[in-house]
Structure formats: structure tokens, C-alpha cells
Amino acid sequence: MTAVVPQPDAQIRIRQAERADLLAVARIEQSSFSQPWSFEIFEQFLTSPGFLVAEDGHILGYVVADTTTTHTGTVGHIKDIAVHESYRGNGIGSALLTRGLGVLDGSVDTVKLEVRESNDTALSLYHEHGFRYARRIPGYYGDGEDALVLVREH
Ligand SMILES: CC(C)(COP(=O)(O)OP(=O)(O)OC[C@H]1O[C@@H](n2cnc3c(N)ncnc32)[C@H](O)[C@@H]1OP(=O)(O)O)[C@@H](O)C(=O)NCCC(=O)NCCS
User: Fold this and answer.
1) Quick check: 88 and 28 in contact, CB under 8 A?
2) Cα separation of 87 and 104, whole Å?
3) Where are the beta strands (DSSP E) in 13-124?
4) pTM for this model (two decimals)
5) CATH of the domain at 50
6) For ligand 1, atom 40, which residue shows the shortest CA distance?
7) Pairing state of beta strands 73-83 and 110-116?
8) Which residues contact 147 (CB under 8 A, 6 or more apart)?
9) How many Å is the maximal CA-CA distance in the chain?
10) What phi and psi values does residue 22 have, to the nearest 5 degrees?
């Protein structure tokens, strides 16, 4: 397989995900998480306006922003976000999060997400975007790690 080499000068654009993107998205997912979403899960979000990819010809990252309805009402939910490891630290994750939150504009008052308590990089990104700690879910992840639920008033 050909390695993807970072090209900082390339034009990066963010757009809604298409079927042709799914393999690359699933590959980034697999290399980013110990319990990755399957190809089929991404497939289910193809019609969701909050499933966005960043690309410069290659898929560099993605976000899945959607709504979740609970007994207390409907809230926005950042369900997944990752950037290809060769491209991290270039503002792509931040841009994806901004656009994903933009898709939710007007439809919800609150956006939530779950994050591993050890994921300092993601925690820093989320804090910069106005997310604040709401509660802890003990043993949320398959390896027993706790999730922190972060919430942002929209
Ligand atoms: C989290 C992730 C999406 C961030 O994407 P990214 O493109 O690297 O992020 P950005 O370059 O836009 O950086 C945004 C912020 O993230 C934080 N950040 C990025 N790289 C960091 C690092 N190496 N260490 C600490 N914080 C970091 C900083 O707060 C940064 O803001 P700053 O540039 O103003 O300091 C990326 O690291 C990733 O894919 N991680 C693996 C998957 C994952 O953990 N997803 C989140 C699940 S909850």
C-alpha cells in the first residue's frame, strides 16, 4: 500500500461524505481507535448532513455530527471524529468540528460527546470549542476506561 504523505500546500476542503469515501474513512477509523466503528456503521450515516470529510484528493479526516433523542429531548451529538495520523496538528480536526457543529446550528440547544478520560488531545480540542465537563460514565469503553461526557450550549 502506498503511504499517504502530508502535503501542507494542498487545498483542503470539507464536504459531506460520499459512498466512495467510506473505505478511506474506515481505514483512518481503524488506525485511530482500539474499538473502531465498522464500515457498515459509517454507511448508515451516509445520508446524515453531519457526516463530513476533509480531503485534498485523499481523505484526511472526518466527523459524524448527528442528533440523539433521549427522555429529556433532542441534543446534538458529536459521535465520531478522527484525522489521519500523518495530518494531525494542522487544524483539520478543529475545522471538522467547527463544520460539524455548524450543521447542528438551529436544530438543538445543546451538543454532547463522550471522550476517553486519557485522550488529552481530544479534550484540549473540545475545550477550545466550548465543551465543558458534564459527567463521567464509569467503564464506558470495552477496556474498562471511563468516558467523560462533555456538553456545549449551542
Ligand atoms: C483529536 C483529533 C481529531 C484532533 O485532530 P487534529 O487535526 O490533530 O487537531 P487540530 O490540529 O485541529 O488541533 C486542534 C486542537 O487539538 C489539540 N491538539 C492537537 N494536537 C495536539 C497534541 N499533539 N497534543 C495536545 N493537544 C493537541 C489542541 O488543543 C489543538 O488546538 P491548538 O492547535 O490551538 O493548540 C486527532 O488527534 C485524532 O484523530 N485523534 C485520534 C482519534 C480521536 O481520539 N478522536 C477523538 C475521539 S473522542
Assistant:
1) no
2) 26
3) 13-16, 51-55, 59-70, 73-83, 110-116
4) 0.93
5) 3.40.630.30
6) 82
7) parallel
8) 114, 115, 116, 117, 136, 137, 140, 141
9) 48
10) -65, -35
Cα(71) to centroid(ligand 1), Å: 32
* Number of structural domains in the chain: 1
Domain that holds residue 61: 13-153
pLDDT at 6: 54
Residue 99 lies in a domain: yes
pLDDT, averaged per 10 consecutive residues of the chain (154 residues), comes to 51 97 98 97 97 97 94 93 97 98 94 98 98 98 97 91
The pLDDT, as a whole number, for residue 36 is: 97
| C-alpha of residue 125 to centroid of ligand 1, in Å | 6
Element (H, E) at 133: strand 132-137
pLDDT for 10 equals 66
pLDDT of residue 1: 43
Query: Residue 28 domain-assigned?
Result: yes
In whole angstroms, how large is the CA radius of gyration of the chain?
15
**134 in a domain, yes or no?**
yes
Atom 19 of ligand 1 has which residue's CA nearest to it? 89
* Ligand 1 near 48 CB (within 6 A): no
Q: Is residue 8 part of a domain?
A: no
